Amino acid sequence: MAKNKIIIIGGGASGLMAAIVAARRGAKVTLLERKDRVGKKILATGNGRCNMTNVHCTYKCFHGGHHTFIEGILKAFNVTDTMSFFQELGIHPTITASGKVYPRSLQAGSVLDVLRHEVERLKVTVLCDEEVIKIEQNKQFVVYTKQNNKYYGHKIILATGGKSTPDLGSNGTGYELAKAMGHTVIRPIPSLVQLKSDAPFLKQLKGVKITGKASILDERDHILREEYGEILFTDYGVSGPPILQVSRIASDRINNNKNVYLSLDLMSDLSKKELDKALIERLTGMPYKTIQDNFIGFINKRMIPVLLKETGIAPNKKAADISKQERQNLVIWLKGLKLHIHGTHQWNQSQVTAGGVKTTEIDHQTLESNKMPGIYYCGELLDVDGDCGGYNLQWAWSSGYVAAVGASQS
């Protein structure tokens, strides 16, 4: 029998993993990448340091597809497997207190380099500037590209990515290919992305960073998710790690025309009672100062005029004259600044795509299509997305491995 010919469409993390695994298993592999080089998005991960995975990775860190589907793929190629795989290629891992795993070099380029070197060693044919526009099945699969070229293979692995950061390679074309083969695509939405608000004071707070708690609320003020960390105010809304973590829920609600709000606890280290006590001590300890001057050294100086305006307190009012109700209003604002969220940043700013090919239409053990046998799916193209912290790259490695094992079987 002729050697198994596998065509991999997409040269990102999952595509490169699939290429290496399939080639190691004896397949003749051709990888088609629409950009001028493979792995561009890898270089941008972890702020250029490449957060390869996370030792705390479980199915609970993911959204979209059913948890049994996600759990099975993660077990087939787990975090330990990932670290061993890269150590064999020369990447020495370093693990942070939060479980994030980086290359010891703290350079994303190191991860991409060892993947590219292994692809070259295995004699995988890598063809860049080739954008796939159609796939047909006769005796073999025929892949047509925008550049008027045709490629033939026994199996196809789709690793085109989602719609996030299209400048780095993933522009959503994989969804059209999947639809053409009869698949259902859950509408893609941006995730791990900054949130937009129309609060009038945001321009005044642009660049201010606060360590606090961010909570996504529905229209009844029910908390849907909350995260703690550094919150960054921008002229359009809010950013920072906790904002990215809660952004999927906000994006989903906006996509479904539902109201969504963000509550910010800017004094999360203090309870309301403790904050009130701290304010009393401050106001009585320096009663001669204006309230504006009294707050210097207690909260970010640029936030003081906003706080006072939003609570209706005159900046030149003496601390001694602040009423109990005014003090309580200060506590309420600092412990629960509420913003209406009307949108997210654009695809170019989102780190990952939520939504994608419906996982019930994919074999949960091999990632082969139930609609068109011989086609395999992996990575962000599937309706699986993870939290921030290395989980999405782990999904790429795991799903790329499983798809390659499935496709390389006779």
Automatic annotation (TrEMBL):
Transmembrane segments: none annotated. Residues 190-352 form the RsdA/BaiN/AoA(So)-like insert domain. Its cofactor is FAD. It comes from the Bacteria. Keywords: FAD, Flavoprotein. Residues 5-404 form the RsdA/BaiN/AoA(So)-like Rossmann fold-like domain. This is NAD(P)/FAD-dependent oxidoreductase. It comes from Vallitalea pronyensis.
